[in-house]
Every structure is written in structure tokens, then in C-alpha cells.
């Protein structure tokens, strides 16, 4: 068996990672479109807008459909189990449907008006459609898997259902944190493990499960995906405060505007010291004033500066690297082709070095 430590010395180029992402997108999109076409009007149109296939007026569009990390992982996991990547396509589509179900609902709950550089579904089509289409995408995800009519499809559906429940748990935790003055680092990591790690864990194993992999091999791939998800979320938390709006498609200080208790914030509050104390006082005052939309840009900039001064930014960067290392180490627990292991490492590299 090749080891992750050995494969880390043989880098997959950035171009190679982009090819993996494009392969995942190319193989899964036709099946994804076919699934969405099953929805009753106007849900089919609303979903097509969300995926970037049409604009708000219904005209064909070539919108940003996201990074396609999850489909790429699903196809790679099939190859890790020794079967063709095409075996993982139903899993790639199902995971992408669940992911987008969560985005539709999250945008509405968070009040986000922009995603991928354009208006969100609830902003264009209304809250009711955002809820309905999200529910429909979740139902489609299970339908796409179960219509394979195999024992392994049933195993895959169970893992997807558990991951979805954890994802919803994570969103509930995230919302509850917004109304608390203090959240521990451990609580934040648990929430992010549910909200992001669970579905990436499922994406990293579902193709292998569809290909007949053992539970132990699927569990090893899930462990890789779970910690990759935590690394991904740590980077996302950094971008949520310091990301360039031109790259992220979101407002400046996005997470601060939403009162999110993300890792940089929680780590800064736990650090102690004058910057930490000042930040805590400001956030406590914010909690008594729901009108953060009235804040000036300078006030948001002050909070971001205090988080950085208290060490929240650096701690989160280090946590992303720690979670990355744990993810890579999990690959040693499964015997897979060296080439596939290098590609999984390459995708992990992509996740922790990004600007959006």
C-alpha cells in the first residue's frame, strides 16, 4: 500500500486539479439537469436559475456553478475502490443536490442577497420558492440514488441521509450561536464538522460505496472527507471576514454582518488579552442592537482588526493546516492506487489554498 506521506512528495499540478474538477462537473451535470427537469413548474425554472443555467429572465446563461469539489470527490472515491469513475456519478449528483438544497435554505435564513456574483433565489423568486425548491432537491437526491436498485445504492442512501441530518444539525447550531455572546472553540468545530464536514465526508466515500467498497474502506474515505471539510470551512471562515468580494461574490465583512460565531471570532474571544476583551465588549453591545446593517464600514473593519490582533486569523490558518494533515493521514487506512491517492491529496491542497 502506498502511503500518503510518500504521495505528498509527488504533487498534482494546479492544472491537474482543475481537470479533476472539470471532469466531475462534465460527467455529473447532464444527470443533474435531467433530475432537475423532473420538478414541476415553476420549481424546475427556479432550480435552473440557482444552478446558473438560466438568468432571472429565463434566458440561457453560463453562470458560476461552484467549484464542483464534491462531484470530483465522488468520482475519485469510486476509482479508489477500483471501479470506473462513472460508477460514482449517481453519488456525485445526489451529494450536489443535497449541497444545493442547503445553500437555498441557508441563503434565506442568513439573509444573503448574493451568491456566485448574482442575486440569490429567495431575492429573485421569493422565500417560498427557495424553501420548496430546496426541499425538492433533497427528495431528488434520494430518488437518484435509490433508482439504481442495488444493495450498494441503499448503503449509499443511508450514508447520505445521515450526512444530511448532520448538515441540518450544523445549520441549527450555527443559527443558535448568533444569539449567544460566547461559543467555545470545541462547539464551533463540532458545528462546522456537522455543517460542512459531514457532506464532504459523504462525497468522499459515496462513489466507493456504490462500487461495493467495504464499510472500513468507506469509513477511511469519510474520515479524509470530514477533516478536509473542516479545513475547507476554516478557510471559508477566513474568507468570510477577509475575502475579496470580487473573488467571493459576497459583501465585505460578510460573516461579521451576519453575527456569525466563526472560528476566527471564537478563537479571538478565547485568546485573552486587550484586543480579545475589546472585541468581546463590542460583540456584547452588538447583541443588544439588532440593526448591524446601520453600522459603518469602519465599525466592521475595527472588529476584523481586533480579531486579527487577538490571534483569531492566525489560529484559524493553523487549524486549517492541522485538519488538512489529519485528512491526508486518513488515506493511509485504505489500499488504493497511488495515482488516485495523489489526486485526493491534490484536491486537498486545492481546498486549503484558495481565494473563494
TrEMBL record:
Q: Does the keyword Protease apply?
A: no
Question: Which ranges form a coiled coil?
Answer: none
- Listed Pfam families: polyprenyl_synt
Segments crossing the lipid bilayer: none
Assigned keywords, A-Z: Magnesium, Metal-binding, Transferase
Gene3D superfamilies under this entry? Farnesyl Diphosphate Synthase
Name the InterPro entries for this protein: Isoprenoid_synthase_dom_sf (IPR008949), Polyprenyl_synt (IPR000092), Polyprenyl_synt_CS (IPR033749)
Q: Which domain of life is it from?
A: Bacteria
PANTHER family in the record, alphabetically? (2E,6E)-FARNESYL DIPHOSPHATE SYNTHASE, GERANYLGERANYL PYROPHOSPHATE SYNTHASE
The family annotation for this protein states: Belongs to the FPP/GGPP synthase family.
This protein's name: Polyprenyl synthetase family protein
Amino acid at each position: 500500500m502506498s502511503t500518503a506521506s510518500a504521495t505528498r512528495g509527488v504533487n498534482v499540478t494546479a492544472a491537474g486539479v482543475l481537470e479533476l474538477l472539470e471532469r466531475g462537473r462534465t460527467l455529473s451535470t447532464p444527470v443533474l439537469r435531467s433530475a432537475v427537469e423532473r420538478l414541476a413548474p415553476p420549481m424546475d425554472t427556479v432550480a435552473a436559475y440557482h444552478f446558473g443555467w438560466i438568468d432571472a429572465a429565463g434566458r440561457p446563461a453560463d453562470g458560476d456553478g461552484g467549484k464542483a469539489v464534491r462531484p470530483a470527490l465522488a468520482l475519485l472515491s469510486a476509482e479508489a475502490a477500483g471501479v470506473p469513475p462513472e460508477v460514482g456519478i449517481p453519488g456525485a449528483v445526489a451529494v450536489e443536490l443535497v449541497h444545493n438544497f442547503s445553500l437555498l435554505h441557508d441563503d434565506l435564513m442568513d439573509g444573503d442577497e448574493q451568491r456566485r456574483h448574482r442575486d440569490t433565489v429567495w431575492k429573485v423568486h421569493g422565500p417560498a420558492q427557495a424553501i420548496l425548491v430546496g426541499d425538492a432537491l433533497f427528495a431528488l437526491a434520494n430518488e437518484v440514488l435509490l433508482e439504481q436498485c442495488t444493495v450498494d445504492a441503499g448503503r449509499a442512501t443511508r450514508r447520505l441521509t445521515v450526512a444530511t441530518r448532520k448538515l441540518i444539525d450544523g445549520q441549527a447550531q450555527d443559527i443558535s450561536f448568533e444569539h449567544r455572546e460566547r461559543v467555545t472553540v470545541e462547539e464551533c468545530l463540532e458545528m462546522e464538522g456537522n455543517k460542512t464536514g459531514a457532506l464532504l465526508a459523504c462525497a468522499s466515500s459515496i462513489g466507493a460505496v456504490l462500487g461495493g467498497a467495504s464499510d472500513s474502506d468507506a469509513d477511511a474515505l469519510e474520515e479524509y472527507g470530514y477533516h478536509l471539510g473542516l479545513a475547507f470551512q476554516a478557510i471559508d471562515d477566513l474568507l468570510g471576514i477577509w475575502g475579496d468580494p470580487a473573488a467571493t461574490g459576497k459583501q465585505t465583512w460578510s460573516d461579521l454582518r451576519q453575527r456569525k460565531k466563526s472560528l476566527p471570532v471564537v478563537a479571538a474571544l478565547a485568546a485573552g488579552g486587550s484586543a480579545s476583551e475589546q472585541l468581546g465588549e463590542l460583540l456584547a453591545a452588538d447583541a443588544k442592537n439588532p440593526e448591524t446593517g446601520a453600522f459603518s464600514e469602519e465599525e466592521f473593519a475595527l472588529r476584523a482588526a481586533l480579531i486579527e490582533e487577538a490571534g483569531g486569523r492566525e489560529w484559524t490558518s493553523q487549524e486549517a493546516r492541522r485538519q488538512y494533515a489529519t485528512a491526508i493521514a486518513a488515506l493511509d487506512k485504505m489500499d488504493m492506487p497511488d495515482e488516485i491517492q495523489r489526486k485526493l491529496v491534490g484536491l486537498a491542497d486545492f481546498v486549503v489554498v484558495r481565494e473563494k
